[in-house]
Specification:
Helix content: 55-70%
Strand content: under 5%
CATH class: Mainly Alpha
Low-confidence stretches: none
CATH architecture: Orthogonal Bundle
Number of helices: 14
Structural class: mainly alpha
Largest sheet: none
Distance between the termini: 55 Å
CATH superfamily: Ammonium transporter AmtB like domains
């Protein structure tokens, strides 16, 4: 009944995207101080459990059931009611449960991205409430609006694998979080383990092939194009960031190289299956330069985005949507659209409007949620807790 090749490929892609969440935990864990490693890593790992429960209960249904042309779906498929192993996904090539699992992995990693911005400053109980509310009020609506046949999809907005749905809204939520909770009282002097950062980057890069290539939901030429574009953009962005930081700091930075690659991965995500390989080169170079500048701007403005979530993911995701509006072409993907450089001026305007709207929505709702959560339980850690979060919050230590 089902295409075994496509089903096997999507199971592999799902596994790769799942691996990105532990990869993110290692990436963030290496960047913070020795006494706060477990806290930031646990914030990523706990999403594997909490988000899965929420996705099974209502998440998938709110994203992909009903609500055509609207902001959110309905609860017809809550608790996966009526879904069996034989239920086909649209087109009938893979089981619906494979698509459910694949999209669940996106839901798991997206809120975890935000945690790097407010590292060392948020109580675990407050984060758990934030995780649930943010998924319900921000992530699920945008999945529905873009990938679930909702408002933005009907309008013609494109996002191949999550420039808006994952990176931009997470980055804007990170900025709102930073502005709400304020600066750290104790600032980590440097990453405590660059090898951990490198391990995390490697896992993220590896998993990103499932993230982008898997978003075609079958194996064809577009799958291959998305795979290659992912690697090319990441590589060109990494080298671009390395060169710029080398010129400015007089030394080649390993962390800079790694951060640049993640910026390239985030930026190519929305256009991976819609642009040519040459365009992926341009996107990668722009990602390395623009995200580097964004991080520098953040530092000058005094925003304490500890792990540069806004500068890398927020700006990278937004840049990727804009670049898709410029460089998208139906010669790569007939289901895509022609960007401004290919005569698609209307499509470019729609992409711009979508990124502005999503940024405002994610920022405002996140700021409001943190204000509301603070009425229930204290969001911000105390100065005494901040220096030793692993011990003070969890009674555990990464290193003896």
């Amino acid at each position: 009944m089902f295409d075994t090749g496509n089903t096997g490929f999507m199971l592999l892609a799902t596994s790769l995207v799942m691996l990105m969440t532990p990869g993110l935990a290692f990436f963030y864990g290496g960047l913070v101080g020795r006494k706060n490693v477990l806290t930031i890593m646990m914030q990523s790992f706990v999403s594997l459990g909490v988000t899965t429960v929420l996705w099974y209960a209502v998440g998938y249904s709110l994203c992909f059931s009903g609500g055509e042309g609207g902001i959110i779906g309905n609860l017809d498929l809550a608790f996966l009611r009526g879904v069996t192993p034989d239920t086909p996904f649209a087109g009938g090539q893979i089981p619906l449960i494979v698509f459910i699992a694949y999209q669940m992995m996106f839901a798991i990693i997206t809120p975890a991205l935000i945690t790097g911005a407010f590292s060392n400053r948020v109580h675990f109980s407050a984060y758990l409430i934030f995780l649930v509310l943010w998924l319900l009020l921000v992530y699920f609506p945008f999945v529905h609006m873009i990938w679930g046949g909702g408002l933005l999809a009907k309008w013609g907005v494109l996002d191949f694998a999550g420039g808006i749905v994952v990176h931009n809204i997470a980055g804007m939520a990170a900025l709102a979080s930073v502005l709400y909770v304020g600066r750290r009282s104790i600032v980590d002097s440097a990453p405590h383990s660059i090898p951990l950062v490198a391990l995390g980057t490697g896992l993220l890069w590896f998993g990103w092939y499932g993230f982008n290539a898997g978003s075609e939901l079958q194996v064809d030429s577009i799958t291959a194009a998305a795979f290659l574009n992912t690697d090319i953009a990441a590589s060109f962005a990494a080298v671009t960031w390395l060169i710029i930081s080398w010129i400015n700091d007089k030394k080649p930075s390993f962390v800079g190289l790694l951060t640049g690659s993640v910026a390239g991965l985030a930026t190519i995500t929305p256009g991976a299956g819609y642009v040519t390989t040459s365009s992926a080169v341009i996107i990668g170079i722009c990602a390395g330069a623009v995200c580097y500048i964004a991080v520098g701007l953040k530092n000058r403005l005094g925003w304490d985005d500890a792990l540069d979530v806004w500068g890398v993911h927020g700006v990278g995701g937004a840049l990727g949507i804009v670049m898709l509006g410029l460089l998208g072409t139906t010669t790569v993907n007939i289901s895509g659209a022609n960007g401004l450089f290919y005569g698609g001026g209307d499509f470019f305007v729609k992409q711009l409007a979508a990124i502005v709207g999503s940024s405002i929505y994610a920022f405002v709702f996140t700021f409001f949620m943190l204000w509301l959560i603070n009425k229930i339980t204290t969001v911000r850690t105390s100065e005494a807790e901040e220096g030793t979060l692993d011990e003070s919050l969890h009674g555990e230590n990464a290193y003896i």
